[in-house]
Hints:
The chain is of the alpha/beta class. Helices cover 51% and strands 11% of the residues.
Amino acid sequence: MVFVLKKWLGLLLMPLPFCSLLLLLGLILLWATRWQKSGKLFISVATVLLITFSLRPVSVELNRPLEQLYPPFPEEQPVDFIIVLGHGHVSDPAVPLASQLTEAASARIQEAIRIKRLNPAAHLIFSGSIAGDPLSGAEMYARIAEASGIPRSDMTLIENARDTEEEIARDSLLIKGHPTALVTSASHMPRAMTLFKNTAANIIPAPAQYVGRRAQGEIPLYGYLPSGRYLMYSEMALHEWIGALWNRIRN
């Protein structure tokens, strides 16, 4: 019950659902009550927030402090295990295998495969539960790895972990202090590393999927228009900031 409530609360605090609720409430107040000023205020706040979080500079600056906290994985670093935290997928048979993963999941598995090639003896640990799909996220990772020439004997799948905390609890039982690369999205890495600090694990961060990238050239004016992509990236960052706050309050 607590897990479900946490998921619902986390989703409702994201920019699009939160602003949608504000807009809906504002419209009700504006057209169906005498509190028209309050309705206009809610609509105005929702509109400003939605546009703000859809801007490229905002999404970049929300993500960048999270993503730059840990450096990329050092190629000379030997590891015995490679943990890949789960993300989403849709196992649609009409779509190529690699395209069935979300952007985040695709970036994570590609980074894991790269590290595996640097450390051929390392064992891969894939996590990702079954949620709204017949296949687990861990199974999807395994299929991508197999397609890249990695045998199943080099993989362990954790398919019953529902969130990052449960993934890390199960991962920690397997790695037992061995040097381990942790692969997840760069913005997600600080929260994941914080959870691993409560264990005896020897973790080397291996961040993937950087979205808080500062352009090295001049961006055309249309690049500053609101975009659904940047709204999604802002949502990624806010999810991590809220998650970090939740962990701090709870601990």
